[in-house]
Write a structure and sequence with these properties.
By secondary structure, the chain is α/β, with parallel strands linked by helices. It folds into two domains: about 5-145 and about 205-245, Rossmann fold (3-Layer(aba) Sandwich); about 150-200, no CATH class. It has eight helices and eleven strands. The chain has helices spanning about 5, 10-15, 20-35, 55-60, 70-85, 120-135, 150-155, 205-215, and strands at about 45, 65-70, 90-95, 105-110, 135-145, 160-165, 165-175, 180-190, 190-200, 215-225, 235-245. α4 links the parallel β1 and β2. The protein is globular, with a radius of gyration of 18 Å. The chain starts with a helix and ends with a strand.
């Protein structure tokens, strides 16, 4: 099994997607619309949509949204939330390496470091080719990941976080020959201890621009956040904008 098949369970859902984050999403969503230059009614694919925060926020603004994620429990959470919010969204279970779309979307989003999971580099390229195929002519792709530079400048091998009902220990190891961050998350609560493993390919902006170029996606812009601020060594995010030529 791939690491993410065990990682994103109901316990991790509570930690990664607490209810208070939905309010923050609303504000960031406006910035995303501006960065992408989206017209009213545009059709959008939210790739690796998780519990549907951005899918729902965009649908409430009148966009035609499809959300895709590999996790059935996250998709079910997204469907229930969309029903509660009174918006209609197609939430699909799927793998970004095998996207079932052909020129269906004006824009594709992949947010919050949902790219870089795969062990083989060719799988990342396959996913990007699928994104290009899913886009209509001149459609745009916005890719957001953690900043490689900021992570390296502030790297800590061990870090504790206080969470509801317990603590989370993050043990990290940088593997330079693979360009990967290997992490072990240890969840400590009253009812016991649970361990999770994560392995992320950390791309620099240059590496992603080159890889996307191999998928025939044209690089347009690089930002350090969703507000469109310039990318610097201190930026916590790497936000790239591409276009289908």
């Amino acid at each position: 099994m791939e690491w993410w098949e065990n990682f994103f369970d109901k316990e991790m859902m509570k930690i990664l997607f607490p209810e208070e984050r939905w309010e923050v999403t609303e504000n960031r969503c406006e910035s995303l619309v501006k960065l992408l230059g989206l017209e009213p009614g545009s059709r959008i694919l939210d790739l690796a949509c998780g519990t549907g925060r951005y899918s729902i926020a965009l649908a409430k603004r009148g966009f035609d949204v499809v959300g895709l994620d590999f996790s059935e429990i996250y998709i079910e959470k997204a469907r229930k939330k969309a029903e509660t919010e009174g918006v209609r969204i197609d939430f699909l279970k799927g793998d970004m390496r095998d996207l079932p779309f052909d020129q269906d979307f004006d824009a594709v989003l992949c947010l919050w470091t949902s790219f870089g999971y795969f062990e083989r580099e060719e799988d990342h390229l396959k996913a990007l080719k699928g994104v290009r195929r899913a886009l209509r002519t001149s459609g745009r792709f916005l890719l957001d990941i953690s900043s490689y530079e900021a992570l390296m400048r502030n790297f800590r091998e061990t870090e504790w976080y206080e969470i509801e009902g317990g603590y989370l220990l993050d043990r990290r190891k940088w593997v330079p020959e693979k360009g990967r961050l290997e992490s072990e998350w240890i969840l400590v609560k009253k009812d016991g201890v649970k361990k999770y493993e994560m392995s992320l390919r950390l791309f620099t902006a240059y590496e992603l621009i080159k890889l996307a170029g191999e998928a025939d996606l044209v690089f347009l812009a690089l930002f350090g956040d969703f507000q469109g601020n310039p990318k610097t060594l201190d930026s916590r995010r790497t936000v790239l904008l591409f276009e289908k030529g």
